[in-house]
């Protein structure tokens, strides 16, 4: 009788420990969640959104346009959410200080935030080691009114670097509304004067 109770208790504890181990492995190696902080990924991701992150993807399966979570290369213990713009061996969309093209080295990627005005990214610190990438953002889970998939399409302005925003594109319309029509028009008139 006592032995039977002890065996049942041991089985229960073993099942709980096993479930916790599987859950821990799943949450650290396969999928996890992360909170978006800041506005560097507007309009794609907004501040205080909870995103679902696919972590099992090997480095050679990332592609241009993927939105990723990575460990900050400049501040230990912090994480960034950015978009991969260029892969190893590709040319970065921004030339170096001498005007020469930057080729992304092996094992590195060129990342940028979708909201360039406030984003700290490869434009300031150069190519980022792929070993810092923790996973690919695949879905927004919270708030529930904004549940959606996350696009891995590059915006038209992210490949040829200094192309003005087109009012015909979805991104151009969103950013014009976000930045304000007057500022967008003043930028265009300055460009026309030059």
From TrEMBL:
It comes from the Eukaryota. Residues 15-91, 102-142 form the Peptidase S26 domain. Its EC number is 3.4.21.-. The active site is at residues 40, 82. Pfam families: Peptidase_S26. The keyword RNA-binding does not apply. One of its GO terms (cellular component) is mitochondrial inner membrane peptidase complex. GO terms for biological process: protein processing involved in protein targeting to mitochondrion; signal peptide processing. One of its GO terms (molecular function) is serine-type endopeptidase activity. InterPro entries: LexA/Signal_pep-like_sf, Mito_IMP1_subunit, Pept_S26A_signal_pept_1, Pept_S26A_signal_pept_1_CS, Pept_S26A_signal_pept_1_Ser-AS, Peptidase_S26. Keywords: Hydrolase, Membrane, Mitochondrion, Mitochondrion inner membrane, Protease. It is found in: Mitochondrion inner membrane. Belongs to the peptidase S26 family. IMP1 subfamily. This is Mitochondrial inner membrane protease subunit.
């Amino acid at each position: 009788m006592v032995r039977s109770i002890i065996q049942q208790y041991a089985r229960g504890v073993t099942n709980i420990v096993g479930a916790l181990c599987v859950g821990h492995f799943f949450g650290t190696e396969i999928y996890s969640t992360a909170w978006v902080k800041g506005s560097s990924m507007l309009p794609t991701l907004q501040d205080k959104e909870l995103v679902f992150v696919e972590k099992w993807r090997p480095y050679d399966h990332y592609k241009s346009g993927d939105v990723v979570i990575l460990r900050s290369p400049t501040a230990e213990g912090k994480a960034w959410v950015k978009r991969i713009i260029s892969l190893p061996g590709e040319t970065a969309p921004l030339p170096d200080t001498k005007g020469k093209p930057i080729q992304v080295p092996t094992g590195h990627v060129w990342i940028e935030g979708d909201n360039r005005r406030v984003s700290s990214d490869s434009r300031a610190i150069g190519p980022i080691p792929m070993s810092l990438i923790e996973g690919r953002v695949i879905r927004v889970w919270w708030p529930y009114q904004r549940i959606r998939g996350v696009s891995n399409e590059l915006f038209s302005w992210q490949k040829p670097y200094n192309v003005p925003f087109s009012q015909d594109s979805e991104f151009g319309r969103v950013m014009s509304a976000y930045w304000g029509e007057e500022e967008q028009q003043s930028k265009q008139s300055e460009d026309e004067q030059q």
